[in-house]
Amino acid sequence: MKVPDVIAAYIEAYNAIDVDAMLACLADDVHFQNISAGNVDTETRGKAEFEKLARMGAGAFSARRQSVTQTITVAERTMIRIDYQATVAADLPNGWKAGQSLAFSGASYFEVRDGLIVRIIDES
């Protein structure tokens, strides 16, 4: 299962909770959406907005891991199925409690342009 290099680097940085390395994989005009239960619940446009979200997310978890279980790449577009595991670092407004373990599956869609990620859609 071959994941394009820039996407593999992004996932590796995500798992390491290394926001700077995540940002190095993104184009300045990156567009991010998170879809939960069929609704867009988070959206950013541009690297600066994404960075704010990523830094907030990095502080919410003491550990997190995305494991790629399936991938399809056509031209500059890649769909991946993900198994996600995380440990919550502090009580969160959505009801998750510090120390709580999370596990779920989802999918992510990536578009790449000139070797950088320009679009990410996460769905769970």
Binned strand content: over 45%
The arrangement of helices and strands along the chain is HHEEHEEEE
Q: In what order do the strands lie side by side in the largest sheet? A: 2-1-6-5-4-3
Give the count of helical stretches.
3
Helix content: 25-40%
Rg over alpha carbons: 14 Å
Helical/strand content category = alpha+beta
The poorly predicted ranges are none
Largest sheet: 6 strands, mixed
Please give the CATH architecture.
Roll
- CATH class division: Alpha Beta
Shape by Cα distribution: globular
**CATH topology title:** Nuclear Transport Factor 2, Chain: A
Quaternary structure state of the chains depicted: single chain
The pLDDT mean sits at 95
State the total count of DSSP E strands: 6
InterPro entries: NTF2-like_dom_sf, SnoaL-like
Protein name: Nuclear transport factor 2 family protein
Domain SnoaL-like: 8-120
Organism: Neoaquamicrobium microcysteis
List the helices and strands and how they pair.
Elements: H1 5-15, H2 19-24, E1 26-36, E2 39-45, H3 47-60, E3 61-74, E4 77-88, E5 101-113, E6 116-123
Parallel strand pairs: 1-6
Antiparallel strand pairs: 1-2, 3-4, 4-5, 5-6
Pfam family, one: SnoaL_2
Protein name: Nuclear transport factor 2 family protein
Organism: Neoaquamicrobium microcysteis
Explain what the structure shows.
With 124 residues, the chain is α+β, with helices and mostly antiparallel strands. It has one domain (5-123): Roll (Nuclear Transport Factor 2, Chain: A). The chain has helices at 5-15, 19-24, 47-60, and strands spanning 26-36, 39-45, 61-74, 77-88, 101-113, 116-123. The chain has a six-stranded mixed β-sheet with strand order 2-1-6-5-4-3. Strand 5 (101-113) and strand 6 form a beta hairpin. The mean pLDDT is 95. It holds the Pfam family SnoaL_2. Residues 8-120 form the SnoaL-like domain. It comes from Neoaquamicrobium microcysteis.
